[in-house]
Amino acid sequence: MAERFDRIWHNARLATMRADRPDLGEIERGVIAARDGRIVYAGAASDFPADADSIQWIDCEGRWITPGLVDCHTHLVYGGNRAHEFELRLKGASYEEIARAGGGIVSTVAATRQASEAELVASALPRLDALLGEGATTVEIKSGYGLDTETEMRQLAAARSLGRRRKVAIRTSFLGAHALPAEADGDKDRYIDLVCNEMLPAVAKAGLADAVDAFMEGIAFSAEQTARVFEMARALGLPVKLHADQLSSLGGAALAAKFAALSADHLEHTDEAGVAAMAKAGTVAVLLPGAFYFIRETQKPPVEAFRSHGVPMALATDCNPGSSPLTSLLLAMNMGATLFRMNVAECLAGITREGARALGVLDETGTLEPGKWCDLAIWDIERPAELVYRIGFNPLHRRVWRGH
Ligand code: DI6
Ligand code: FE
After folding, report:
1. Atom 4 in ligand 1: which residue has the minimum CA distance?
2. What's the gap in Å between 73 CA and the centre of ligand 2?
3. Phi and psi (nearest 5°) for 71?
4. Is 111 exposed, middle or buried, given 0-12, 13-18 or 19+ CB atoms closer than 10 A?
5. Phi and psi dihedrals of 186, rounded to 5?
6. Which residues contact 159 (CB under 8 A, 6 or more apart)?
7. Is 77 in the pocket of ligand 1 (CB under 6 A)?
8. Going by C-beta distance under 8 Å and a sequence separation of 6 or more, which residues neighbour residue 358?
9. pLDDT of 306-327, one tens digit each?
10. Residue 1: is its pLDDT beyond 80?
11. pLDDT in tens, 225-246
């Protein structure tokens, strides 16, 4: 008897992004068949059973299908905005100067503390919709603008709520160790006590976080303080990731690797020893060209070293109000190519397969392979390079999340 599917996309060209195929894992005359939201077949039309039966057949008219896009690093949920700070920067102030003068992250903290969960959801929805409008099907969202237990939990709850309002998988990361709140009176160690002993256990108990992140930086937390947060995350069974080596070289990549972090992110100032440690630990390098561009950083992440050591590279928006007000993964790819000299296959893998790996969900999404969720982006393009090459143009034809 003929095998029965829910939906079949045919007459398509596939960029499967499978890790076991070279480049994009392209298939020129391809078919995708789905049942119960999962991919059952993604391959050549010539190998697909001619008598297959399906509730719906979708003729893709030669369009390209990639995996649904993954934005593996965002701070999408926050109150207020920082357009004013941008104006100050245009007058000459640097990102670090503004942070040290009490602006920066802590000004967003004040606005976030004042916002209700409903207000946080409402202000984040247009940003989420911008990502979805370009084919995103999985989006990570961090806390880190509450810096007290109640507001951190409200931010994470707002992030979870976004996932019920739109057809998208939301992965949350607790980033209590993002900045020092004013009421901590400059005592970073005591604040880290609060993060470890109160915030993290409460967040874990409520099931609000899928991972734990920290900002290890001169203007944020030290290696020792970060390690304390990671020890507690480990005790609670939560994977870790790290904002590492963004503005200075403090050995963040090596520390992330020591804790077998899912990812280390930013990495502009990472040295070769850090890269080697990441390779050994299987930690993904998440590169964030939007932040590099927006704060006019000049030190580039060591892309060539990541390549030669075999460290997987992901790309993400880092969408946040201070250093990367970016809601476009297509533009993140263009920046990855133009600013960091990543090639087309690396850019596309960065917002699909490697983004999924950086979130620990590669067995669920990120490539076109049987068994995974049927998360697709269908594009009106002639060749995949167009997705990377164009600036400010969105050729998305249709987005499919879990088969619909
Ligand atoms: N690194 C960043 O670039 C953002 N957070 C972080 O840890 C900046 C967040 C902000 O300025 O609001
Ligand atoms: Fe970030």
Report:
1. 323
2. 6
3. -100, 100
4. middle
5. 75, 0
6. 76, 77, 124, 141, 143, 170, 172
7. no
8. 72, 73, 241, 262, 263, 284, 286, 312, 314, 316
9. 999 999 999 999 999 999 999 9
10. no
11. 999 999 999 999 999 999 999 9
